[in-house]
Amino acid sequence: MTRKEVVQQCRDLVDLLPGEALAEARKKHPDVGGFGVFPVYAPVEVIHAAGLMPVGLFGAGDKIELSHAESRFQSFICSIAKSTLELFLRDDMKDFEGVVFSSICDVARNLSSLVTRNAPDLYIEYLHMPQNMYSGETLNYARAEFERFRTKLSQRVGRPITDEAICESLVLYNEVRALVRRLYSHRKLHPTSIAAADVYAVVQAGTRMMPEDYAPMLRDLCDEVEATEVKPRDGVRIVLEGAFCEQPPIGLIDVIEAGGCIVQDDDLMIGWRLFDHDVESNGDPLAALSQAYVSSSVYTSVRHDVDKPRADGLVVRMKQSGAEAVLFAPAKFCEPALLDYVLFRQKLEEDDVPHLKIEYEEKMWTFEATRTEIETFAESMLFD
């Protein structure tokens, strides 16, 4: 596939609701079932090994009206929670086997309970990911959670989910994550080789395809992007931070670059590219995934590591990407992101790093005010 074809197919997939993405996949895989994965992280290899397609569940954006979910939540709840629940209340997820949530925040925990109550025919799981990364029992605990998930999912689909099947899926997802790292690594050196919004669409589309279909497409894109002759352009090199759970509209990413910023790195879709190297199974894939989560995860606002502070991780990400500033883009009412912003801001001010904070919500469709803020920020640096 050509670069233009890949990007267009990915943007089309991102525009689909989860059920529509599953229907699209069934054109090639008629018997595949769907299983939703709410941010931030879940072992998608286990889901794929069960014969299901892991589908990223990032709300519904501006594609549906909130007719029922508003009455189940307070007004100050993030929009991804409301539109995700609306999908279940509208019965849009009826073709899915279930959904897995992970320990992000109180909203995610309560959302899983609300979905369980309103979708009694689906298997709804909540993974309690480890928070103490240095206990002697951390690895055993993480593996036990993954084993519990495998056992219950196996009961749901009515067939065993073997280590061999998970290892095969792990190989596929290792390839996908390696290709995504390859794309990001090239773009850090040549940021004008592909637009940030296109990279975002491509990575998000990978959460709506079978990995065996996604990897060849992603490989074609990497080959063509790397062969593209690029011309440098003026702009402020930034790291985009704060969108680890609810994902911003693609239009916002377009506006960020049009406003004079060059996105060198970001935490978009971070749960689907959490590991900084391949995961080696050594015959026990669940133990390998547990080890990777504990020791090889990149920092996020929902994973605490006392020896690796997230603020220090942000500075490292800036240095490795060649960025000179940070653009914080948390979703409105996102407590983990807004709490971390205080820590990030303190660290950046200590290091004299310029930064700007904007907020968004999934139904955001006009960006004039945001663009003005970004342009002012960029110009203040470019012409200082």
What is the CATH architecture annotation of the domain at 23-159?
Answer: 3-Layer(aba) Sandwich
Give the CATH topology of the domain at 23-159.
Rossmann fold
Describe the main β-sheet briefly: 4 strands, parallel
The CA-CA distance between the termini, in Å, is 44 Å
Question: Roughly what is the average pLDDT, rounded to an integer?
Answer: 94
Poorly predicted runs are: none
Shape: globular
Strand content: 5-15%
CA gyration radius, whole angstroms: 20 Å
Summarize, please.
With 384 residues, the protein is an alpha/beta fold. The protein is 49% helix and 11% strand. The protein has helices at residues 3-14, 18-25, 44-49, 79-89, 106-118, 138-157, 163-189, 196-205, 211-227, 250-258, 285-295, 310-321, 335-350, 368-382, and strands at residues 33-37, 52-56, 96-102, 123-127, 236-241, 261-266, 325-328, 355-357.
